[in-house]
């Protein structure tokens, strides 16, 4: 059997980080088994669904690297098929026409509340012969069992049992003939050949209502896996009060996609004590029994730690491409050809201990700036008359030096010694001259990346 999973977001807003994790779990499960990962846009809420929101979701998926098979499917485009299934259920006796008005339904519920009985609506039309039907608007409802229990096996939640007297005869088609979401989901999953439904546990109650359609149509049921929601550090459902919640926001903050995938995979799923892993390992290891039943807590510090490890371990060329994409996504100026060359040369010393792309860019300030270098307040304190004189003395030695790290260290050390100071004491003035900052990569790394001409020119500028 070919594994088929799906991610089915509603285009009524941005791609929430919880939804992104759901997409990731589906992607990992399918990709790790040579299966298919499908994307369905559940746009039946036409009042709130917009093409712009759909594009935001697609952009978020693309940023995260969660590629899907085939074209995205529009749920609203399948409305005729949903209606066909509802009519089939009506024809075979598993559904019925209900002519109860909203006023009648509300009156029923008011009476139920007054007598402290169940407010679950029981339609008086369930068993009425069609010959006695009025010529009036109606909805089509499914016939749910009202006695006994239904048990569903869930790969995460285990055996879950629901009392059938808590199931209503849910509406399949509204009075205007449009299908409801609960019907559309089941029909689409069946038609798409979905074998595994992996989604948030806020859909667990829906599974029992959707099961009615599978039972009535005699369709094979998919494997269910309802995953716990993501909480904030305070143990409450992740929301705006905790900070960023959308995938696009994390892209804008400069987190690398590989680090985001790694961290999201660990939110609610585990493989032993492994924290840092590659996509290949995640695809090999990911399985449904590894998902816990308790909500995971979003921890920004852990996210940063994982992302820092991924930046450090990334291929330099691939990291540079993602950096360019980050700049484009945040409407920042693109890198010049010279900057690209220097980034390529210096990525080895920039990516260590950088947890985000803004941090990487901050370390690369000496690349991004141009002469004349204007030292900031802190670094300018290292450029007094004495240090300027030493830099002036150092410049001709560097002009004749072999441009290797060992040679540069030897030249700088000998000049420092000639002035009666340790090499470390000269680092501050060098940082101010080369980068205009007090905190930078190693001065020798900066020299190697800048090259002899630019290094000497900056030192000459600083020494006056």
TrEMBL record:
Domain Glutamyl/glutaminyl-tRNA synthetase class Ib catalytic: 3-304
Positions occupied by motif 'HIGH' region: 9-19
Binding positions (ATP): 240
Highest taxon listed in the record's lineage: Bacteria
Enzyme class: ligase
Keywords: Aminoacyl-tRNA synthetase, ATP-binding, Cytoplasm, Ligase, Nucleotide-binding, Protein biosynthesis
Motif ('KMSKS' region): 237-241
Residues of the signal peptide: none
UniProt name for this protein: Glutamate--tRNA ligase
Organism: Yoonia phaeophyticola
Lineage of origin: Bacteria, Pseudomonadati, Pseudomonadota, Alphaproteobacteria, Rhodobacterales
This protein's encoding gene: gltX
């Amino acid at each position: 059997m070919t594994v088929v999973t799906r991610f089915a977001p509603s285009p009524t807003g941005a791609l929430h980080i919880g939804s992104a994790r759901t997409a990731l779990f589906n992607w990992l499960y399918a990709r790790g088994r040579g299966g298919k990962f499908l994307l369905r846009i559940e746009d039946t809420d036409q009042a709130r669904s917009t093409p712009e929101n759909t594009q935001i979701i697609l952009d978020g998926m693309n940023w995260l690297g969660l590629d899907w098979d085939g074209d995205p499917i529009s749920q609203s485009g399948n409305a005729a098929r949903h209606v066909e299934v509802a009519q089939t259920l009506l024809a075979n006796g598993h559904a019925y026409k209900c002519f109860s008005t909203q006023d009648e339904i509300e009156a029923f519920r008011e009476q139920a509340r007054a007598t402290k009985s169940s407010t679950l609506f029981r339609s008086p039309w369930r068993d009425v012969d069609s010959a006695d039907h009025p010529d009036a608007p109606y909805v089509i409802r499914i016939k749910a069992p009202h006695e006994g229990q239904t048990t569903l096996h869930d790969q995460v939640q285990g055996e879950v049992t629901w009392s059938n007297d808590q199931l209503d005869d849910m509406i399949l088609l509204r009075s205007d003939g449009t299908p409801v979401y609960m019907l559309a989901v089941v029909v689409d999953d069946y038609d798409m050949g979905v074998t595994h439904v992996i989604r948030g546990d806020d859909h667990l109650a829906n599974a029992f209502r959707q099961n009615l359609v599978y039972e009535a149509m005699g369709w094979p049921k998919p494997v269910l896996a309802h995953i716990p929601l993501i909480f904030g550090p305070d143990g409450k459902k992740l929301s705006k009060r905790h900070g960023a919640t959308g995938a696009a926001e994390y892209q804008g903050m400069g987190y690398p996609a590989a680090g985001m995938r790694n961290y999201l995979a660990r939110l609610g799923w585990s493989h032993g004590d492994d924290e840092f892993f590659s996509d290949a390992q995640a695809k090999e290891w990911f399985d449904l029994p590894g998902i816990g039943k308790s909500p995971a807590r979003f921890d920004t510090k852990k996210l940063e730690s994982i992302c820092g490890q991924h930046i450090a371990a990334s291929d330099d060329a691939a990291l540079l491409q993602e950096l360019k994409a980050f700049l484009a996504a945040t409407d920042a100026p693109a890198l010049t050809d010279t900057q690209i060359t220097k980034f390529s040369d210096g990525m080895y010393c920039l990516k260590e201990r950088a947890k985000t792309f803004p941090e990487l860019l901050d370390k690369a300030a000496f690349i991004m700036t141009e002469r004349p270098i204007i030292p900031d307040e802190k670094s300018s304190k290292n450029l007094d008359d004495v240090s300027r004189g030493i830099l002036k003395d150092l410049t001709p030695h560097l002009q004749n030096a072999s441009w290797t790290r060992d040679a540069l260290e030897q030249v700088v050390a000998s000049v420092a010694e000639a002035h009666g100071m340790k090499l470390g004491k000269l680092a501050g003035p060098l940082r101010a001259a080369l980068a205009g900052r007090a905190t930078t990569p190693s001065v020798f790394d900066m020299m190697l990346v800048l090259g002899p001409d630019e290094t000497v020119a900056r030192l000459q500028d600083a020494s006056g």
